[in-house]
Amino acid sequence: MPYGVNVSVPLDPSIYATRLSAVQRAAAAAGIDALLVTPGPDLRYLTGYEAVPLERLTCLILPSTGDPHMVVPGLEVLAAQASPIGTLGLELHAWGETDDPVSIVASVTSGARTVGLDDHMWAEKVLRLRAAMPTVAQVTAGQVIHPLRMRKDAFEIAALRRAGLAIDEVHAGVAELLRPGRTERAVGRDIAERIIAVGHVSVDFVIVASGPNGASPHHEVSDRVLEVGDAVVVDIGGTMPDGYCSDSTRTYSLGDPGTEYRDWFDVLERAQATSCAAIKPGVTCEAVDEAGRAVLRDAGLGDLFIHRTGHGIGLETHEEPYIVVGNALALESGMAFSVEPGFYSTGRFGARIEDIVICTDDGVDSLNRRPHGLAVIEVG
Length: 380
Known about the structure:
Creatinase_N, about 375 residues, single chain, Creatinase/aminopeptidase-like, Creatine Amidinohydrolase, Chain A, domain 1, alpha/beta, about 35% helix, 11 helices, Creatine Amidinohydrolase, six-stranded mixed beta sheet
């Protein structure tokens, strides 16, 4: 199996300046005076700085008008300057071990009436900021950041495409790992090694769900031994050096899983294709969910599809938009998300097919290109 995916990702730092300005305009329109963003995907999206989440406060202060500031522990200053932050002209406020960084944030944001806190901020920091700014209303920053993160730019689409090709390369070799007598855990360990070998920097999850374990959508691995006739759901993903994630599911079987299973899987394959065919700008998230769900429901399998059809993906494996009933958000060109219907029969088996797709001006572009059909592995 040939390993090695080109993950070189040159990125013009000006893209971060563009994102900062766009978020500032969105915050002003929402009546938010400043955004406070701590380490996590929002900070990386806005600045390119992959700061380590620590008890020491690192915080981007992004006013709706004016220049951004960055509060950084003194021992992290060089790391921050080595990131794209060093080219963005942000004013750095370094603080020492005996300083109070929260008071620095309060001072820089004096006069603000409403601040937006990033959705991943630790509760301890939220409460300290509230105590330091008792008259300032706190709201979530996601309401202005996430609509921008949902619409991927050309760089992000290229990054997700590389991630999709990399995880496809892993799936191309999964069948050779699935053999009667091996445990799920042993197979999962081999898959994890290959996820790194094809260019990911981290393994985010490995699901090897064989036989009755396939009925648990978020089963990971166990010491169950694979048997002839097992269907095996393999859902895998990782993070690439540029921070963008992969996620793809294919279903395999060790020999013939039986007529009923094969018939149900044919319906599932049609459901996944139907949801993908429904994707285009202006169609709602819930309509994409319903398109495939209706296929399963009409075949009597509706009650066995127990989760949403999909989730957004980018710097996080799960982010907006969510492809689920009740989400009337209209799709736009550049939105990236999974399409992953399944069926789950408790105590018996399960199945899922998952691709990452991009909504385009013309419809849909799938970033995963492995065959969707049930991969039947010959066993001696």
